[in-house]
Amino acid sequence: PAKKKDIRDYNDADMARLLEQWEKDDEIEEGDLPEHKRPPAPIDFSKIDPGKPESILKLTKKGKTLMMFVTVSGNPTEKETEEITSLWQGSLFNANYDVQRFIVGSNRAIFMLRDGGYAWEIKDFLINQERCADVTLEGQVYPGKGAEENDKGKNKTKPEKAKKKKDADKKSNSIKEDNRATKQREDL
Hints:
By secondary structure, this protein is of the alpha+beta class. It has helices at 12-23, 53-61, 78-94, 119-127, 159-177, 180-187, and strands at residues 66-72, 99-103, 108-113, 132-137, 140-143, 156-157.
């Protein structure tokens, strides 16, 4: 049997052990569990429209945290971007959408949603704003009202990934052609 200690002599480790003992038999409700430990919500396949892949994404993202990137058109300063996106966040708040906003550049912000099921409704709101250049959601780029005319292709995927892959292929080909150690081995 462990020797009983006076509660005033407890250190942080003793307090942590005591907390573990108290919580050992407690049942944690599903809503209190972290998102990655919660069971996924059941998907009602009758609501899925096969002609709209977005409907599948809406149902699979329901109840999960989701982030979308928003680009402000023109060449705004970080302060202007802060003000514009703050207005958008306020409008979304007034429409009962729980959105957090983080500025990540002079013309770019991240909108974090607690429930990803509403992401496409929020995306529709944002692309109809005058100063919205584009919204990136789940790898898809949706041009906004403020987008330049040559950027208004519908639902472009991120071109960066394809560009990175092409650059990597070029590098690997140039390495294969200019590998001196291999040439010396062949000569031996």
